[in-house]
Each structure stands twice: as C-alpha cells, then as structure tokens.
Design goal:
The chain has 477 residues and is an alpha+beta fold. Helices cover 26% and strands 27% of the residues.
Amino acid sequence: MRQLLFAVISILVLPVSAATLEFRAGAHAEPITPPDLPSPVNGGMRGAFAKTVHDPLYARSLALHDGRHELIITVVDSCMVPREIVDKAKELASRESGVPTSGMLISATHTHSAAAMTPVFQSDPDPKYLALLPGMIARSIVQAHRNLEPAEVAWGKGSEPSQLFNRRWLMKPGLSYSNPFGGRADRARMNPGFLNPEVSHPVGPTDPEITIIAARSLSDQRPLALLANYSLHYVGGYPAISADYFGVFTERITRLLEATGDRYIGKPSFVGIMSNGTSGDVNNVNYAAPARKDQRPGEQLELVAQSVAVATRTAYDNLHFHRHLPLASAEVDLKLRVRKATPPELARARELVEKSPRGSDGQFSDQPAIYARESLLLDRYPDQVPVRLQVHRLGELSLAAIPCEVFTIIGLELKSRSPFEGHFTISLANGYNGYLPTPEQHRLGGYETWRARSSYLEVEASEKIVSELVRLLRSLR
C-alpha cells in the first residue's frame, strides 16, 4: 500500500476573472562552474576528475506568474542534483522571494561532464562545492522571480526522431552474458556494441517529441525565455567541465531566435533551457549501424544540439501566444521500498570488497567488486525512502516531475493518461532516486536494473509513481 507523507495542491480559487489578471514571466541563468580544479565528475563507474573548463555551467530558471500562482522551473547543468541540495536551495529561494517551495521545480540536465553533486559508484563530490551550490541555485530562482514582467506565453510541440535510439537490446535465444552479481539470466544488454551479432533488437521505444514553453515581453515582444524538453540521455565528448549538448542547445536556440543584439541592451538576457525528458533507456548511438570514425571531440554533441534547436525553432514559429494561461501545482512525497542485498549476498559482497585488488588511486576496476561495494553502501539506506513527485499545469499543458532516470515508455504512458491536451515529463527533478525501469524491464535485467545507488527503488516503483502522478494531474483539473 502506498504511503504518502504529505501532499500540497496549489490551486487558488479567487472571485476574479482571467481577463483581469496580468500574466508575467522572467528568467535568469546563474553561473555554477566549480571554482576549484581539478573537480570530480559523475558519469562513470570509476571516479574521474576534470582539470579544465571547456564551457561554463549554469542553473537556468524560468519564472511564470498568472496573477494567482507562480511556477519557477530551474534546470541545473549537473549529472544529478541530490534531494538535500534541492530542498536547501528551495528553502533559501522561498525565504528571499516569498514563492512557496511547492511552486519550484529543480532538475538536472544529466550532463556527464559537470562537477559531481551526488555520490554514485566511485565518484564523490567536493564538499566545498556542495556547500556553495544551494546558494547559487537559489540565486537563479530569486533573480528569475525578480525579473518578472508583463508577458505573453505559449506552449507547443516539435519533433526530432533522428537523434534517438533505445540503448537496451535483447539477447538472442540461447545467448547470455554475466552480470556483476554472478548471474547469467539478464536478457537485455545496454550499449551492446555496433552490429553485435548476439543481440536482435531494442526492447523499448523512443519519444521524438520536443515540448516547448516560450515567453515574450508584452511591451516589445522580445523573447524572454524558452524551455524545451527532449527525451535524450545526454551527448558528451569534451574531456573537461562542460554542459555538453544541453549547453550548446541553449546557445543555438538563442541564435536561431535572434534573441541577442544591441536592441536588447539594458534588458534581462534571454534564457534558453533544455530539460531532460524520459530518457533513462535512450541515447544518441545507433548500434544497428557501423561505428562512426574520425569525429573530433564534441562534434557529435554539436550536431545533435543544432538538429534539436532547428526543430525547436520550427515549433516556435507555429506557436500561438496568449496574454494569460492559468497555472496550478501539486506535489507529494511517495514512500517506496529500497531493494537491498540479502544476508548471503551481503556476505559475498564483503568478501569481494576485502579480496578484490584496488588501483593506485584506491578504486576498483572490475564490476563485481564495484557492485559489491554498492550493495554494502545501499545496506545503510533506510528500508523506505521518500520520492518527491510534482505536477504543474500551464493552460492545457501538464508537466510531471520525477526524481529518477525515467524510461521512455513511462513518459509515453503519462502523455496518454494526462487529462490535459499536452503533457511532458522532466526527469532527474527535485532529487535523485536512481533509474526507473518498469517491472517488465526489471525482468529483462541489464545495467539500468542492477542494484546500486544508481538503481535501488522497488521493482513496482514505476507503477506506483505513474498511478500517483495521474491522480495529481486529475486534481489540477
């Protein structure tokens, strides 16, 4: 039975018509590049350090106010942002702005080249950087709130199917591989390699839809901000601190909208934002084709960012702007069980950790030892954890926020079950609770299901989360 810690529904009923309410919007991009190098980065099973900065990191915020309710969406250039930092940043921003925390959404882009904020596998954040982050993220939220001005708002959809590939492939009958726990029952294999003869086809869909929210000034029609959502895991390539494809997208969409120049001097800068959709099992690599060779570092992410930005610009050109759209928000903490090792599995894990060799840096190289260490660390977790879920409404567009790396099929189900005309989901939002496969995908196994701090929620978690989100979405009606 689901256990709900609390729920907040921000729907105000006032004796006032929408025609008398003024819609406002504001945006801000706050730098969050780590001041000290080398900096630990997430993204691999071994801890790594970036020694240089290729491009700066930001916390980008879009604030919307319908005259009754304010919604502020912040997207952080990070692999994942832990719940503790999210909650502290919201508390600081709420105290400064007066905006309730239930009207704030903070998510990570999932760049694998950002400074680490969450400990996963053998990568641990810099404590000094962690201490700075809540204040920096809060400044982004507060300044976007302060930049609110009379505005028009619109939402719409585009499409870019050519950049998406489901990365989980089905093993052919009679073939198997060993997982880190010594088993050979996994039927799905992540990133199996190009033209691998041992796999047959991907075991999940992709979602080519790009959903956008755009705001422009009521007084002079200048673009204020654009938030896009696309279900692509990430595209990296720089051996340095970088916002990867997410950062290049913001640069390209700014250029395509001609949102900079002399006519904007003295005005708040336009802010382009790319949020991560439901991409836990989707990346940009086509394993059904030969490997591409001779690409320079960063070339692929630039190609993808340009392609998605062009599709976004096409969708933008078809937008119908409104002087008012109603906003509403709801959130809940859902308690879910943690998958932990059994006593015999823990005994095996302790033996592996004790006997497996470590490198000169103190890290393990082989997966069995790495996952054994994860099992021991997960055993310290409580038996249940709160998972923060949010929904928001902008007119006939709904938005769900999930603190996980959500499989695409879950996002598609939410789109089909939302009571609103349009819907999208932001993953890695308001904390980090690991991968979110469906029960069926759990049965197929594979990396995204292997028990670790990157994948630890109960097998039925996705079904419980979808059910709760649909209930919340209906409450906004």
